[in-house]
Amino acid sequence: MKPSMDRYVSTISLYREDSDSSPEGTATRNSSKSRSYKRLSQLLNTFLEDKMVEFGRQVRQVKAGHRCALKGLLRSEGGWMTIPQGIPNCPPGLEYLTSIDQLLVHQKVELLEAFTGFETANKYTVKNTLGQKVYWAVEDTDCCTRNCCGPARPFDMKVLDFYQNEVLHFNRPLRCQSCCFPCCLQELEVSAPPGNVIGTVEQNWSIFTPQFSIKDTSGNTVLRIEGPFCTFSICGDVEFKVVTNDGNQVGKISKQWSGIAREMFTDADHFGINFPMDLDVRVKATLLGALFLIDYMFFEKKGNAEQDRPGML
């Protein structure tokens, strides 16, 4: 029980009474003063300890409030999207996708790569239609793999949220890219959280146009992607249709024209992706993975050399 101020005051009064009372003997008076002083010291120590504990608790509360306010300020100043709350049966970090039907993906320009052709790890900013940041994607590969394998390189890609938590993980194994090898086509695995596979993107064999299947965890095809015969980006967008199994278009992945200088001297591309608002967030995340796979297959340069080609030849 915490000592009250009344007990503290009464002990001081007792000490004063003992000091002012008539002497009945030096030993008795000294003994009484000693007891009162000892009790007063104990109460003062306890009182100060309790006050320090309370002060420390208040300081921690203020710091926590400042941290929350600072995070909110950083999110606001940095233009990050606010995460929706109370979304049931949703992998952590994918709550953003529940209220989104379009994403914009911008690749960061790397000056070293632009001037020397030395391949660096790709970095992307994923935004909503309001320009607010949703995710930050970073390629995780070694220097040798990037510069020896070029656009065909295998890679792991980490997708991070505002708090730097890895909410999505894309894995692309080493595969052949030509239509001459139908048994070893491109594939990308999507995990959320990392280690928990939620879908895959698989290339379908074709000669004239790129074809992909979006599959769920059971291996069932939920959507398909159909690309154009020509993936040249000449002053216009290149569109890949997202269709259902019966051929109805429900969205698209588009490589957006980003200006003559950016297109000629860098491989830092701009993409957009549309899908139904009510589409399962796991399928939305898998479509985002398909966007990155398409970028590497058709729009990533090897050094400073373009790799545009007709069909899948």
Automatic annotation (TrEMBL):
InterPro entries: Scramblase (IPR005552), Tubby-like_C (IPR025659). Keywords: Calcium, Lipoprotein, Palmitate. Its cofactor is Ca(2+). It comes from the Eukaryota. Pfam families: Scramblase. The keyword Calcium applies. Belongs to the phospholipid scramblase family. May mediate accelerated ATP-independent bidirectional transbilayer migration of phospholipids upon binding calcium ions that results in a loss of phospholipid asymmetry in the plasma membrane. PANTHER family: PHOSPHOLIPID SCRAMBLASE (PTHR23248:SF9), PHOSPHOLIPID SCRAMBLASE-RELATED (PTHR23248). This is Phospholipid scramblase. It comes from Culex pipiens pipiens (Northern house mosquito). The lineage of its organism: Eukaryota, Metazoa, Ecdysozoa, Arthropoda, Hexapoda.
